[in-house]
């Protein structure tokens, strides 16, 4: 049995029973669990043991006879065991957070967000909800693109299961400007970055330690199939360090270098107001300009940001980035010469 397999199954059973009022028979649970976890098959005896384990853990799961046969459903204690209260400011904060999560629409994560949000709306009296909706209009959330991962829902569910079970996934991946290629990855985490989903995963066939761990954009995946091969998850600290050091989601990351950028007084406020990275260093110069130092693994993590500031910014170091920037400007100059 895969590690955590029983726990995953029991959690899925609770999710299914939470959605229905009149419960499920073992046959219905068998079909739903098999479909939603992507299993080949599962025996009803296994599901019965899972249900009994939930009961033994103190969760209010009961069974009773019905015209459909014996059904299992959640009792009132299971539905009210985590009843919470919230203030108006907490409700507004949650609403803002929900809007920021719109790119997750169509994924299993969004399903949980929406279910919770509907429960809250049902608990709030109509007069309070009307007042809240008026107050809510005083603050808008902008810059969240209308993006949905509904088409990739099945792949995301497969990858999420593989992360929990430490299973290798075979994906069909299409990098920009390259043909689709079948790859095998060891998935560690799913990351949301600038409204796009990425999988933090190790490339199985890559022998180089500097490039094995990388980001894989879900938009570029055409297919994901879980395999019967298992892998050992690296320490959380290693993944946290990898994710936390990113300036942009490049496919792979080598050792970071210091990039020094000089920004004139006219644009200094831009890098102060919108930092490139949480650990960047800023040095104010006598003429009002600033010298920005930030760690990055690739020149192209920095160059597009400097280009966006036009003549107001200059890369000072490393020399490789200056040379690449010079070549880009030369080509752009030739294109716009006429």
List keywords for this structure.
338 residues, 12 strands, single chain, globular, alpha+beta, five-stranded antiparallel β-sheet
Question: Would you kindly provide a brief summary of this structure?
Answer:
The protein is of the alpha+beta class and 338 residues long. Helices cover 41% and strands 24% of the residues.
Give your account of this protein's structure.
By secondary structure, this protein is of the alpha+beta class. It has 13 helices and twelve strands. A five-stranded antiparallel sheet has the order 7-6-5-4-8, with helices on both faces. Strands 10-11-9-12 form a four-stranded antiparallel sheet. Strands 1-3-2 form a three-stranded antiparallel sheet. The protein is globular and about 80 Å long. The model has no long low-confidence stretch (mean pLDDT 82).
Please report the total strand number as a whole number.
12
Shape: globular
**Average pLDDT figure:** 82
Main β-sheet, spatial strand arrangement? 7-6-5-4-8
How much is the radius of gyration in Å?
A: 25 Å
Strand content: 15-25%
Low-confidence stretches: none
User: How helical, in percent, are the residues?
Assistant: 40-55%
